[in-house]
Amino acid sequence: MRSSISSSEASRSKWLRAWLLALCLMLVIVASWESALRHAGLEPEYADNRALWLSSRHQLSRPDPAAIAILGASRVQRAVDVTVLSQRLERPVIQLAVEGSSSVPVLENLAVDPRFRGTVILSIAPAFSFNRRLSKLDAGNQAAWVRAHMQQSRSRRIEQELRLAVQGLFAFRSADAAVWRTIPALIKAGELPDSDYKTTYRDRLVSVDQSKLAVEANQEGIVRLYQQNTEAYEPQGFAELLHYFSTLVDMLNAKGSRVFVLRLPSEGAVLDFERQLFPEDRFWNEMQRKIDAQFIHFEDYPELEGYLSADGSHVAAEKASEFTAELAAVLLANGL
Fold first, then answer.
1. Which of 76, 206, 239, 268 could disulfide-link 123, Cβ–Cβ 3.0 to 4.6 Å?
2. What pLDDT, in 10s, does the model give residues 194-244?
3. DSSP code, position 152
4. 136 and 26 within one domain
5. Same domain for 276 and 311?
């Protein structure tokens, strides 16, 4: 009997040592891979995806009249340094803009959410906001992510936050370290690839290194994209769009929220195209007449100009903090 018990204990001891050895081996492999990635210049970073957006949206689930939600597309997501704006305004700022996507679904979501009592900063980019062919540009992410927010369970939220916490600690969890990037680079060049052109931070600020873009990012390229996919609303269609915008803003105002409509800078060929296709007396000025919000246009504030990258449409990454400080001053001057 004793020999049987002794044999069982010995077997368990062997399995325990085997599992501990396997665990140690795995930790050594992970630590070595992490060290190699960091030595190659790859750092922990976040993916600009649904999980990160949902984490930001859930920050507005608590009724906080001081909270500020930023809505729009890439123009405002790249321009606003959330940390700087929050410090300057002394209020929590949540970035909900999504690259290549219409902000209308998020504006709807905030308007009908009884918990939201904060301020909305709505960035208007003519090729997105006034474009009747928006479906050709719009990736549809904002509508899909709003639905995911409304359906997400508490357990899924906890799992999501744990994943984001790990993603912010380890380089091997970043998109730059994805197998589809690293393995081909190792096979072809014998070394790990550099980080890609886009860096996303925890607060959803997106920083773009234009020197790393696969295609040349210039004003002419932006204009060609708009020319292929943009058509201005006819008067009746735009009137219906304004009525809907006005209804949503009225719903926000009725529960104590405030809405600031923001026209961020563009320049050169991009600005010329926007002026030609979307004349301000027909579009921007008409919005001011029909919507009960505070309007801020960059051309009324010279301090907001001079910060754009070569594409004439987005604030340069290295100038985002300085631009945000100027924007904060403009918002304060307009009663935020």
1. 76
2. 777 888 999 999 988 877 775 557 888 888 888 888 888 888 988 998 999
3. -
4. no
5. yes
Range of the domain at 119: 50-333
pLDDT of the residue at 135: 66
Same domain, 32 and 155: no
Q: Would you say 56 and 95 are in contact if contact means Cβ atoms under 8 Å apart? A: yes
Look up tokens 């919005």; give the residue. 287
Q: Is the pLDDT of residue 2 over 70?
A: no
Who's near 97: CB < 8 A, 6+ residues apart? Answer: 70, 71, 72, 73, 74, 76, 77, 103, 123, 204
Cα-Cα-Cα-Cα dihedral sign, residues 272, 292, 132, 112? positive
Residues 8 and 118 both lie in one domain: no
Query: At a CB cut-off of 8 Å and minimum separation 6, what does 20 contact?
Result: none
Q: Assess if residue 44 is contained within a domain.
A: no
CA distance 24 to 30: 10
Based on the fold, state whether residues 184 and 259 are members of the same structural domain: yes
pLDDT tens digits, residue range 243-282? 999 999 999 999 999 999 999 999 999 999 999 999 988 8
> For residues 180 and 166, what is the distance between their CA atoms, to the nearest angstrom?
20
